[in-house]
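User: Let's play a game. I give you a shape written as tokens, and you guess the letters that built it. Ready? Here's round one.
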């Protein structure tokens, strides 16, 4: 990389580098914010699936599917997923 010869060119290069640094910091901050939001969403999704699994356990698959307006096979898949994730064991912790 060639270095600028005149002072005006150096000034513009430094300004561009500062702007680039600030933009990169902004991207990194937004990435951290997005990660925190994703973690909250993941936790909410897990709680939702756990609640569905509880309803299936209480009401049965067919009734829960009717109450939730979901297809039984879809609900069954969600319940299995929640069980694999260990969410159904939370009742014993309470």
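Assistant: Ready! My guess for every position:
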């Amino acid at each position: 990389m060639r270095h600028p010869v005149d002072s005006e060119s150096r000034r513009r290069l430094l300004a561009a580098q500062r702007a680039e640094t600030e933009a990169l910091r902004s991207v990194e901050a937004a990435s951290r914010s997005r990660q925190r939001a994703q973690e909250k969403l993941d936790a909410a999704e897990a709680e939702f699936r756990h609640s569905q699994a509880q309803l299936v356990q209480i009401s049965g698959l067919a009734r829960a599917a009717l109450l939730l307006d979901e297809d039984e096979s879809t609900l069954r898949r969600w319940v299995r997923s929640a069980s694999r994730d260990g969410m159904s064991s939370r009742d014993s912790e309470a």
